[in-house]
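Hi support team,

I'm filing this because I wasn't sure whether my run with pyridoxine-5'-phosphate finished correctly. The job status page said complete, but I'd like someone to confirm that the output block is well-formed before I use it downstream. Pasting the exact inputs I used:
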Amino acid sequence: MNPLLGVNIDHIATLRQARGTRYPDPVAAAAMAEEAGADQITIHLREDRRHIQDADVRLLRKTVMTQLNLEMALADEIIEIALETRPDVVTFVPERREEVTTEGGLNIVKAAKQLSAIIPKFKENSIVVSLFLEPDTLAISRAKELGAQTIEIHTGRYAELAPTERTDEITRIKAAAAHIKSLGMRVVAGHGLNYENLRTLVREVPEIEEYNIGHSIIARASFVGLAQAVREMKQLLEPLPTGVSL
Ligand code: PXP
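And here is everything the job wrote out:
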């Protein structure tokens, strides 16, 4: 099966918040992305509410037809909203107010105590728990012990490398993906992926079952429309026709 595509629509809200308008509407964007083939809608409710707002989470919970994946920090206020709105999946990510976007994976050693207390609460509510981690096998083993069901591998470092410099990082991601799978967890990846760098990862790491991609899709949408941007990304998740190589 081809890997699934989670479309992160945070930056639709970024555009709206830039002017304090009612448009563009993340609910409309989610519907359009799903219509074009998105398998999941991903949003990040940040503590500073720089893009997605509480009302968006509540509305999207009602309208998303596929799966709703809520990225969030280990913050009590956000945990409360997540348990109340009950997305299908929660992905715990690190968060710093001054960062432009999520930098690095979760520090599992630091977060272990909090995670062990709250993961069971999410699972009791049938919410799948995913942790956003660097491709680090020790961190992945610890995540399994803490009860995570899915690991999203942080591909930020891979995404920053030039095509000729990617081999070592791909090896690291491959080892991480194999380890996640061997522990019986789902393998997801995301961050910094775009129309240029996705295909190599899809070919080299077939263990990855789902990708969460945001910025590049929304950027492309400003040129070709959201539906076309989603369709183009979905195509990159399909196997190359026989005889065609990268
Ligand atoms: N996955 C996670 C856990 C993220 O935090 C983000 C950024 O919000 C993404 C995927 C999407 O990253 P990008 O916008 O760079 O595609």
